[in-house]
Write a structure and sequence with these properties.
Potassium Channel Kv1.1, Chain A; Neuraminidase; 12 helices; 21% helix; elongated; Kelch like family member 42
């Protein structure tokens, strides 16, 4: 029978004697029971149904922080539960507080986790449910998601989805996640893109300092994001950069001493951390890194034809069909799952072809012919339209190259070209651009004689209104800049 200080609980063939005070303090179920005036609250035995002993005992350990001690009787197995006191920790030097309260959530299989969530939900132990949220790991998140959905713990459901979205590429490499329903994987990927769209720039501030800056729309300033850029990325130019699944990938490049590199790093905006990924098979610089259909493609490079593909789920690079010819000073972008390459030079001369690569067929083809020769331009795409920004365009009448800033478009369906904007006072070389929200943001430089090459300008070309406007707050310092657009969590 229960007493003033102890509650007797029956569960199946087991009988538990539990300290009343922590039970009432942490369990909404027992709070309501002992304040309801029901017979159990006046000293009678409390009988529970439908819970597994494993789940119930794990909940009791959380509530009391104490061990379960068995003492058998003729009628049932009896379990005495006592609350850990400060003296217990003084008497147990080899077992500090953090270890004493670790109940092994990380090591639980699906069955015990289901039982634990079931018991915590039934007994309304919010402290334990909150602890489960903070104890998520790659090994437990899927099981906890299933258990929390079954028992209607929607905060825990969202926490599990958020955890998998935060560590999306890590989850992609797990067999249990790969075997999950497509609807779940789609939900996790959608969760990864929740947040605020942000325009970022990766900038080398000095030889030993790279930063990732976020543009502040209201003030026009730049905010430095958390995360130390890896030392192996320092003093590198000619690198490739692309965003895939809301990760920023930076690959390859060339050091000051002329050494080409194959290293690859990624930035996760949901954790604010850089990670080293598998290196490319080929050292390369002055190449194009593109995200296409859940994969990255490293296209060409200085004196290179070859191309390779990176799959995050496998964390490996695989050679694919090379470019038809070696290209330099070209540009490329993705549109509707295919890669388009424009401009540059082949060993035979100017490249006037629009090349297209189809990943499904692993084939290159000549898609069209350019009316003008362009080199060193940047490219972005919106649906079926390719936008060529900047570069050096050859004027066939004067047979001279013009390097002022221009925006040209190419429609891959109608195969038609348009010159959208030209600005002869802005340089088309050393341009960085990114598609963000409703426009193409462009970093360029003035070509005025008094400030040539020194004054950086920040522009936005609105793709729907065909208007080019100045944007406040161009980065005043830095080099090797790369603009990109990502989704940042609302807490940043």
């Amino acid at each position: 029978m229960s007493s003033l200080h102890t509650v007797q609980i029956l569960l199946g063939s087991r009988c538990y004697y539990v300290p009343r005070e922590p039970l009432v303090a942490q369990s909404g179920f027992f709070q309501a029971l002992f304040r309801s005036g029901m017979k159990e609250s006046s000293g009678e035995v409390v009988t529970l149904h439908g819970l597994s002993p494993e789940g119930f005992e794990a909940v009791l350990q959380h509530i009391t922080g104490g061990p379960i001690q068995e003492s058998s009787t003729a009628h049932a197995a009896q379990y005495v539960i006592r609350t850990i006191t400060s003296q217990d920790f003084l008497d147990t030097e080899s077992c500090p507080l953090e270890e004493s309260l670790d109940y092994g959530f990380q090591d639980m299989s699906q069955g015990p986790l289901q039982a634990l969530v079931e018991a915590a939900s039934y007994l309304q132990v919010q402290g334990l449910l909150s602890l489960l949220q903070s104890s998520l790991s790659p090994d437990t998140c899927l099981d906890l998601l299933e258990a929390s959905q079954l028992h209607g713990q929607w905060d825990l459901v969202h926490a599990a989805l958020n955890y998998m979205a935060t560590h999306y590429h890590l989850m992609l490499r797990r067999t249990d996640f790969q075997e999950s329903p497509e609807t779940l994987k789609d939900s996790v990927l959608q969760e990864r893109f929740q947040g605020s769209p942000a325009l970022l720039v990766l900038s080398q501030q000095s030889d030993d300092c790279w930063v990732l800056l976020q543009h502040q729309d209201g003030s026009g300033g730049w905010h430095c994001l958390p995360g130390d850029v890896p030392q192996s990325m320092l003093r590198v130019h000619g690198y490739g950069a692309a965003t895939l699944n809301n990760y920023l990938f930076v690959a390859g490049g060339c050091r000051e001493n002329g050494q080409e590199i194959s290293a690859v790093h990624s930035y996760n905006p949901r954790t604010g951390c850089w990670s080293q990924e598998s290196s490319m098979n080929q050292k390369r610089y002055n190449f194009r890194l593109l995200a296409v259909c859940e994969a990255l493609y490293a296209v060409g490079g200085q004196s290179l034809r070859n191309m390779e593909c990176y799959l995050p789920a496998q964390d490996t690079w695989t050679p694919v069909s090379p470019l038809p010819e070696t290209l330099v000073e070209f540009s490329a972008c993705e549109s509707h799952g295919k890669i388009y390459v424009v401009g540059g030079y082949t060993p035979k001369g100017r490249n006037m072809s629009v090349l297209r690569y189809c990943p499904l067929a692993d084939e290159w083809s000549v898609f069209d012919i350019c009316p003008l020769h362009v080199r060193k331009q940047q490219m972005v795409s919106l649906e079926e339209t390719l936008f060529l920004v900047g570069g050096c365009v050859r004027n066939e009448q004067s047979r001279q190259s013009e390097d002022f800033l221009s925006v040209r478009s190419y429609n891959t369906i109608t195969r038609s070209w348009s010159c959208l904007k030209e600005n002869t006072s802005k340089s088309g070389l050393s341009v960085s651009c990114a598609l963000h929200n409703d426009g193409i943001y462009i970093l360029s430089r003035d070509m005025n004689y008094s400030t040539v090459g020194r004054h950086r300008v920040f522009l936005k070309y609105c793709v729907f209104t065909d208007v080019c406007e100045y944007v406040r707050g161009a980065p005043s310092e830095g080099s090797n800049m790369q603009l990109c657009s990502m989704y940042l969590p609302h807490t940043i």
